[in-house]
Amino acid sequence: MIYLFIMGGIFAADCFLKWWIEKKPDDYGQEIWGGRILLQKSHNRGAMLNFMEGKRQFVAGISVGITIGTAVVFAALLRRKGEYVYKAALAFVLGGALSNVFDRIKRHYVVDYFSFCAKYERLRRIVFNLGDIFIFLGAFLVFSRRILKNL
């Protein structure tokens, strides 16, 4: 049951932050954490880095399909004992994915709101949201679990 709360918490936190940033002007920008992170408003109309932005319905369909598939695996996994890291990883992925899918369906774009103030310009231009971070973290945990299990 804790994994459903984790998933719901990620979804709720990301939705709140998206709501908050959407109230800001389009040119909003504020550095936080000693200039390490830049808060800003960005609308992603495609997949990651606006890839396929001209095919929003296709991207939304793929996103929904992958999210449903992950949810089915997660639901089956919740019935099994153990597998705590795998369950947490999928809760992370689903919390972030559901928030982004919700955006794609409701707004027709995903709201991103922070970037890292990195040394390299290419890295500074990538704008994330909390859901993205948890999708990456969850995917990393799944990948790490697979690698460690096969050693």
From TrEMBL:
What name appears for this protein in its UniProt entry? Signal peptidase II
Per the UniProt entry, what species is this protein from, by scientific name?
Answer: Hominisplanchenecus murintestinalis
